[in-house]
Design a protein that fits this description.
Blueprint lengths: L13 E6 L15 E6 L6 E2 L4 E3 L8 E2 L3 E2 L4 E6 L7 E2 L8 E6 L5 E6 L6 E5 L10 E5 L36
Parallel strand pairs: 7-8
Antiparallel strand pairs: 1-2, 1-11, 2-7, 3-6, 4-5, 4-9, 9-10, 11-12
Length: about 180
């Protein structure tokens, strides 16, 4: 029989950010600091993850079958820690270089190949740039589960320009 060709055009999801050597940027409830991958849905429709897969090797695209949804404009966070839970992947990432690969049910995919990544640095996409290598960069500590925009500066100023302040050091033991 004939089969329909895969869809063309951009995927409705993208690999938005990942951290292959997480030492302290994010910790789970047990205090572990697993590697992680974040997906983003830049569309205005919810994407069902049934049939989607993630892998650390484009030649083995079905290492992890995904479930659940990614809301319109939303993010989905996965721990790459050899686990078997809904938000866990059965593989770890390599800080010495490797791949993160996302595949749609129709076989289309997005593969990000990376070199050495320092501890607690993520490979992150620029805001509103879900395709192409030109929009990939590095972010210290990352933003797991959220957009990659820089946080807004605080509105209140703790010490206005020109203020004077003094640090008082108290001895640990009173002087005799």
């Amino acid at each position: 029989g004939l089969s329909a060709p895969p869809e063309t055009g951009p995927l409705p999801l993208c690999i938005n950010e990942f951290m292959p050597d997480n030492d302290s940027s994010w910790r789970d409830d047990l205090g572990a600091a697993p590697d992680w991958i974040e997906l983003h849905n830049p569309t205005d429709a919810t994407v069902d993850l049934s049939g989607w897969t993630l892998s650390d090797d484009e030649m083995v695209p079905d290492k992890a079958s995904l479930s659940g949804v990614v809301e319109a404009g939303g993010y989905r966070f996965f721990r790459a820690d050899d686990g078997l839970g809904d938000d866990q992947l059965p593989f770890r990432l390599s800080a010495d270089g490797g791949q993160v690969a996302l595949f749609a049910p129709d076989g289309r995919g997005q593969v990000v190949t990376h070199g050495v990544v320092a501890a607690d640095f993520s490979v992150a996409r620029a805001v509103d740039c879900c395709a192409g290598d030109a929009c990939l960069g590095f972010s210290y500590r990352g933003t797991p589960g959220y957009g990659n925009a820089e946080p807004a500066p605080p509105g209140d100023v703790a010490l206005p320009a020109g203020s004077f302040w003094e640090v008082l050091a108290w001895p640990a033991v009173p002087a005799a």
